[in-house]
Amino acid sequence: MPISPMDDYLAHQTTDTFDHVFTSDRNFFDRYYFNMHASSDELFAVFGLGQYPNLGVTDAFVSISHGDTQYTVRASRELGSNRMDTSVGPFKFEVLEGLKKLRIICDDNEWGVGFDVTFDGAQPALEEPKSIKTSFNRTVMDNARFAQTGNYSGTLEVAGKSYDVRPDKWKGARDRSWGIRGVGEAEPPGIRVTEERAHGFFHNWMPMQFEDYMIKCFIEEGPDGDRQMEEGIKVHNFGIDKDNELLGSPTHQMRYHSGTREIKSATIGFANSDLTVENTALRTVNLGMGSGYINTDGWGHGVYQGPLKVEGLSYDISTPAIRNKTFGLNETLCRFEASNGDVGYGMHENFIVGIYRPYGFDAPDTMAP
After folding, report:
1. Strands 273-286 and 330-338, sheet pairing
2. Does residue 190 form part of some domain?
3. What is the C-alpha separation between 145 and 17, in angstroms, rounded?
4. Beta carbons of 149 and 206 less than 8 angstroms apart
5. Is residue 310 part of a domain?
6. What is the pTM of this model?
7. Under a CB-based contact definition with an 8 Å cutoff, are residues 165 and 152 in contact?
8. What is the distance between the alpha carbons of residues 62 and 331, in angstroms, rounded to a whole number?
């Protein structure tokens, strides 16, 4: 248990050094997630970094939907004992002001994707309900997370174009999550191979950014629409002296691109409010395409790639049908039109695994008509 720079901070909660976490579970993770857009349909960027102390790995990625192509640069290295080192290949994540301001860098590389941007939170970070799931006697998911929308400043290069990232136009969301969920190489399931599966999972995560506030909506349901996780809350920006507003249980009417399970538009309402929001999809980043969120090609979160490995990839995303050929977690950039007249932009993260009968997905391979 070697000491590291983090051990010089007055933050210990166990007798171990900071390179050890509270559990020996191989699935412990600690990660950053960001998305960024120009309040238009021109491009959508998603980037993140994760550490997996019990696997000895850290990795990072950026995926940018631009034109008809999704560009991905990804990097992985051995973690080592210094968890304050948040660099992986060309990537570096730096906390400038906790819960408020972070700098994220992807240095110039042979794939022509690079950026140096600073995220400045627009409202206080919102702690989400914890996600907990067990299988037999084992905890297979136990996550904590907070979310925040904000503005960006800096520079971005992609597809031979350079962008001046200014906070009046460039916005997005981030989350910080940590805990236990499946990462690394697949492990034998043991007795869990006999477990009766729920056969369906419906997931929607929406940090909706408006001029003066964020509406945070979170919906997860089982195959028959049984609600498993929900959140509906309005959080006002810094400088606005108003309490958070609990909007109540979210309602939804989703519409999908034909032949896919990717949203085309949606109507979101809330049980304790007259407010509704119309979501119109602008473009989608498919996180199944090389990011590591879904291991489609041997590169998943925490999968060991050696001492250091950096790769660049590009994908045709010209139509929803082409994107649908690669199963993925859909990060869909949307225009949000609220019933109070406010207009905003942001992400509607969406995917359906297996069966979800309320929208006619009656078999694992059923697609929208």
Report:
1. antiparallel
2. no
3. 23
4. no
5. yes
6. 0.96
7. yes
8. 13
